[in-house]
Specification:
This protein folds into 2 domains: 243 residues, no CATH class; 207 residues, Alpha-Beta Plaits. A hairpin with a 5-residue loop joins β7 and β8. The chain starts with 8 loop residues before the first strand and ends with a helix. The strands form 8 sheets. Strands 1, 6, 9, 10, 13, 14, 15, 16, 17 and 18 form a 10-stranded antiparallel sheet that branches. Strands 19, 20, 23, 24, 25, 26, 29 and 30 form an 8-stranded mixed sheet that branches. It contains 8 helices and 30 strands. By secondary structure, it is α+β, with helices and mostly antiparallel strands. Helices cover 18% and strands 37% of the residues.
Length: 461
């Protein structure tokens, strides 16, 4: 502080709201039985050696009162990681502080409290598997991937408790400084939340999960000033006129938008079984948010694009893809292949990020009747009719983001080879077909692809 400000002590309280743009899992490192989490619903179990294996669910972190929360350490850590890409070391430590050996180090200029869940729009989550309004979460079931083959492991699933897109959190914090310093500093610090894609926190961030951004039309930060005047011993509190509106800063990440359209049926299987449903009717249910909006797990799209990129990388002589390479097997990103740098391996977050697919809805929802085929004879099995619940005419929008990064050894990424491979991947998608979801061998989920902004990205390259 300078001048008259030396005569007083001052800090600024600030508050704002963040909305989840995509589903989120911030784990607490624990798991619970599905029967304990959802006692009023029919629970899944897995047949193992003639017995039943209890279904376990990785749970989210919660506040002392049991409500979902956004940990301050997760929030501050994600902000620091994001600003490391643009800030000089001195400026970064000025904001976030520094931990050093001995008595050295520095305190940051701000502190954050854990975010409190303000609420969730029940109408956008009511169709999700095991959605529970009281808990404000749903249960996502994922297929484990074999490290040897890169394909789905047989009968190997894992489950996560998820917060739904649309959940709103209230965040509060303190800025240790003057009002002017707070206005200038917060405009920089909170800028990532003002971008279209927001800032990702929690697991699955490279797949577009956990994207937090300012609530719609609420990019404002409320400020409250507290000053102590030593000469009089008076503590003054005041609310400055107006609010601080946060704007995106810098060029941000390069973006390419994919528009996907499926003329035929589409199915992403909902593994949940709910009490009260007609179990006598053998029907494979679709994963959906409501009766008009299907859901596609982003992993399905990421796997398809990574497989294409690996094929193109081999064709161009850029090397293959060891997607399960451990961090102990390499020392510098230079040792990785282009596809590994783009999509990530152990110890390296991929340069390509995905937004969660946004469904524009479907033209209609219905059911298709199928028959089971004997694996040995290839003939129809008696009395084995079953149905698929499907959506027809599904439109999906998804964005691919290409991040710019400088490694500790001073090399800038993406390299020319990385960028060329990325462009080859995008050019090959235009007018092509991607098979997504379940039952693609039956003709389900064949999406036509249209890329936008490709010409602009070529010019920037």
């Amino acid at each position: 502080m300078s001048g008259a400000m030396n005569m007083l002590l001052e800090y600024i309280r600030f508050s704002f709201e963040l909305e989840l743009a995509s589903d989120c899992h911030i784990g607490d490192g624990k798991d619970k039985a599905l029967a304990e989490l959802r006692p009023l619903m029919e629970n899944l179990s897995t047949d193992v050696d003639g017995g039943k294996l209890e279904t376990r669910v990785a749970t989210i972190v919660r506040a002392y009162d049991g409500s979902p929360c956004l940990p301050s350490t997760s929030l501050k850590g994600a902000l620091r990681k994001q600003h490391e890409l643009q800030m000089a070391k001195g400026e970064l430590e000025g904001f976030f502080g520094a931990i050093k050996e001995g008595d050295e180090g520095a305190m940051g200029t701000f502190a954050l409290y854990a975010g409190k869940l303000k609420g969730t729009d029940d109408s956008v989550a009511v169709g999700l598997p095991y959605w529970e309004m009281k808990e404000q979460t749903w249960i996502a079931t994922h297929v484990a991937i074999s490290r040897e083959t890169g394909t789905a492991e047989h009968m190997k699933l894992f489950n996560q408790e998820m917060l739904p897109a649309g959940a709103v959190f209230e965040i509060e914090g303190v800025w240790f400084g003057t009002l002017d310093e707070a206005r200038d500093g917060l405009a920089v610090l909170l800028a990532p939340f003002a971008t279209r894609d927001g800032l990702s926190i929690g697991s699955g961030i490279k797949h577009g999960l956990g994207a937090f951004r300012f609530s719609k039309n609420k990019e404002q930060v409320l400020l409250k000033q507290t000053r102590f005047l030593p000469a009089t011993g008076v503590v003054e509190e005041m609310v400055p006129k107006g609010t601080l509106t946060i704007q995106p800063q810098g060029k941000g990440q390069e973006r390419i938008n994919l528009k996907l359209f499926c003329d035929g049926p589409f199915l992403s299987v909902d593994p949940a079984r709910r009490k009260g449903e007609n179990t006598a009717k053998n029907c494979i249910k679709a994963l959906k948010r409501n009766d008009k909006t299907p859901v596609l797990h982003i992993h399905s799209l990421v796997g398809a694009l990574r497989a294409r990129a690996a094929f193109l990388s081999e064709c161009e002589g850029y090397g293959g893809d060891r997607r399960f390479r451990k961090s102990s097997e390499w020392t510098s990103p230079v040792e990785l292949t282009s596809v590994e740098r783009l999509f990530g391996v152990g110890g390296w977050r991929g340069l390509v990020r995905f937004s969660q697919p946004e469904s524009a809805g479907a033209q209609e929802k219905g059911s298709l009747t199928s028959i089971a085929i004997d694996r040995f004879s290839g003939s129809v099995l008696d009395s084995t009719l079953f149905e698929h619940e499907v959506f027809v005419g599904v439109e999906l929008d998804v964005s691919l983001l290409l991040e710019k990064r400088t490694s500790p050894d001073g090399v800038e990424y993406p390299t020319r080879e990385d960028r060329k491979l990325f462009m080859l991947l995008l050019e090959g998608l235009q007018g092509d077909v991607l098979m997504l979801g379940h039952a693609t061998n039956r003709g389900f989920g064949w999406f036509n692809v249209e890329t936008t902004d490709l010409a602009a990205m070529k010019e920037n390259g």
